[in-house]
Amino acid sequence: MKQLSLNALSLALCALTLAGTAPELQAAPNQAHPAASAAKAPQAVKRFVLHTNVVDGKMVYVDDKGVANPTLNVAVGDTVEIELFSGEGAEHDFMIDELGVASPKFSATQKQKLRFQVTQAGEFQYYCSIPGHRQVGMFGTLKVSGESLPAATASSNAAVALYAPAATPLRAADPAAVDIAADPNKLPAPMAAHAPRVQKVRLETVELPGKLDDDTSFTYWTFNRQVPGPMLRARIGDTIELTLANSKDSKAIHSIDLHAVTGGHGGGADTQVAPGQEKTITFKALHAGLFVYHCATPLVPQHIAAGMYGMILVEPEQGLPKVDREFYVMQGDMYTQRPIGAKGHQEVDLQKMSDELPSYYVFNGAVGALSKTHKMQAKVGETVRIYFGVGGPNKVSSFHVIGEVFDKVYSEAALNTIKHSVQTTMVAPGGATIVELKMDHPGSYLLVDHALSRTGKGAVGVLEVTGDSTPGVYHSGAL
After folding, report:
1. Is there a binding annotation on residue 441?
2. Could you give the C-alpha distances from 274 to 59, 81, 279, in angstroms and in order?
3. Is 345 annotated as a binding residue?
4. Which positions carry the signal peptide feature in this UniProt record (predicted)?
């Protein structure tokens, strides 16, 4: 069932009363009509209390008896009152398309009381229209017994809507948008050898408007206000105490699933954090390698596509071989209602996400993140190591550097598997690799996904190499 547009909702809200946001709406007096008195149904007031929660990994409405997504039983002619509030703190609403019922958004601090009269018999789906919520379980049934009232009677019993949300216009780029692209140069330094120890890490989930492209913004969901989230670094045997805090300004629950963690759904089972809350997990780094982490709150692909991914490197006991420079790069696919190049504020498109049809492919969260926003630089003779991962949520990357060959590839980021002289390496969504290359010639080297149509959708970065060319490696022209 397609969600009504806001314009359609504005026209449809002929039976809605909202206590707390407007004076209680009274039904208009019955108009003289021969069918009205004959078909008039008995009237009662049916009251329900629904709060929201996450149950068995799904977002749901829960009644005062603890039933998830309960069937609401009423009769034709009844007036329905529903008290709504957010039990877990995230933002929600309540919709019934066929009856023209739509509540304002509500959260833990914004309860709503919805009042409307039913004049149609049948079964109608109620649901939350916040993007992603219906898809992960926020819907139930309003069951109306009896016979539908004739159209004239139904019309005469309708209330005049005082609440009618305006259609959302195409917005200009958010003037408050900030650079969210993680600097590929900023990652923890290699770790000196040490006995297993405890590390304490704190991450904050923040929802904020960010710069997706020139004159284009997007509402990102982030770890520590950047995409990807901060790179974490440990040694095998270390114990990590990780605290995840969710900003009080967030509208959604967030969490973290680290692929390096054994147990607890990677931490996702115990870090479902409501706005303004925080939770802590403790885990031991049992496996060396480079691992992705991401949000694990339904609708998981939506949270990932909005920017909620990063990586943790677990070094072996002896550490990794020394190199001259290290870079931190992640690829993601993004799904927006308008195509790449459209100016303004881009909104998420969940249907495109479900169909796996990205509008953008980005390195470090935004178009131009590794060419305009941040610079990657090296010198001839230096060995460069790139920690590369794919947040996804859906697409494989064919990682390649135009004009170079990878001297070493740690295949699938497994540190005991090294391949040499590799041109392009495949990285799955939720996967990673580590590549090393010695720079033998100056120039601009392009980081790409070798599914090259994606370069036009944002997946391109630049590594600038300066210095004198190694003799005999390359020159323009004949010998």
Report:
1. no
2. 13, 27, 10
3. no
4. 1-27
Distance between CA atoms of residues 307 and 389, nearest Å: 13
pLDDT score recorded for residue 169: 60
Regarding whether 218 and 151 lie in a shared domain, the answer is no
Distance CA 345, CA 337 (A): 10
Contact 325, 298 (CB under 8 A): no
Q: Tell me: is residue 133 an annotated ligand-binding position.
A: no
The mean predicted confidence, pLDDT, of the chain is 88
pTM of the model: 0.80
Tally the domains of the chain: 2
- To the question of whether residue 191 is assigned a binding role by annotation, the answer is no
Domain that holds residue 266: 198-466
Mean pLDDT (whole number) for 308-318:
97
Query: How far, in Å, are 178, 306, 308, 411 from residue 207 at the CA level?
Result: 12, 9, 10, 34
- CATH number of the domain to which 143 belongs: 2.60.40.420
Query: Contact 27/159 with Cβ under 8 angstroms?
Result: yes
324 and 225 in one domain? yes
Q: Is residue 455 part of a domain?
A: yes
Task: Out of 56-60, 370-374, 379-383, 426-430, pick the least confident.
Answer: 56-60
Selected residue with higher pLDDT from 167 and 413: 413
Residue 407 lies in a domain: yes
Q: Transcribe 161-178 into DSSP letters.
A: PS--PPP-PPPPPPTT-B
The response to whether 14 counts as a known ligand-binding position is: no
Q: Are residues 286 and 233 in the same domain?
A: yes
Mind listing the pLDDT tens digit for each residue in 409-453? 999 999 999 999 999 999 999 999 999 999 999 999 999 999 999
**327 located within any domain:** yes
Q: For residue 273, what are its two tokens?
A: 């954090």
| Of 16 and 33, more confident | 33
Judge if 103 and 215 occupy the same domain: no
Cα(228)–Cα(184) distance, integer angstroms: 10
- Residues 210 and 141 placed together within one structural domain of the fold: no
Domain assignment present for 171: no
Q: Is the predicted pLDDT of residue 39 greater than 80, yes or no?
A: no
